[in-house]
Design brief:
alpha/beta; Alpha-Beta Plaits; 3 domains
Amino acid sequence: MKRRIIRIDESKCNGCEQCLPGCPEGALKMIDGKARLIGDLFCDGLGACLGHCPEGAITIEEREASPYDQREVIAGIARQGKAVIEAHLKHLKDHDERASLRQALDFLNKHGIAVSPESGNGQALRSGHNSGACPGSRAVSFGMGGESAEPSETGPRPSQLTHWPIQLHLISPHAPHFHGSDLLLAADCVAYAMGRFHESHLKGTTLALACPKLDQGQEIYLEKLASLIDEAEVKSLTVLIMEVPCCSGLLHLARRAVEQAHRKVPIRYLVVGLRGETLQEGSL
């Protein structure tokens, strides 16, 4: 799969080892006086090590790489002691990597390894709140206030959005507004093409936006959608995509998530034309 992963310019690396503490996953090792990426599956591509390199020898590139495997990572980290475990959990929490954080905590709980509440715990996952992450990705529920206001043809039209954030990479499946909701998964361009997107489709739903062509982290998207089905127990999934061929990947992703999830929910889909018209609709 193609994903973001670090690249080390060996000609710039001076062997100072300052990058190593920023990589508790163990993806970096000092070999022959140079920092080396020892395995793609250990690198999450978040780049926490970049800021520690005084020579600018580490960058992030997009290339074919093995999928990041959190279970393999936490198994190796667990052998390094509590300090390294908690550094790794804090790293995941600060970058709002909730799916990976949940996998790590599940592994630690299964093996009876205790961690302090501050380093990352079930409460952070259940609440959807992360004080260490960017404020723009903090889960906020607006309620259903816009639903009661009738849209006016001449005046302002009330927003039907009930929560924030809405980008699939940023949302937390554990945020309370998703529980028991009807989930609308829409390609980024749909709302711009459809003149009455809010009234016709957004009203009464929770929203997740994604672009199957440009967004990175499709496997993370798959985990989040499966988590929304199993843990948030969404009642239904509606997928809105554009008519362009690359957009069909979003519907394919939704189908895979339902197949992977333990619960089964109905999938309804609409294909939207470039001028906002509905070209096709159906169910899976």
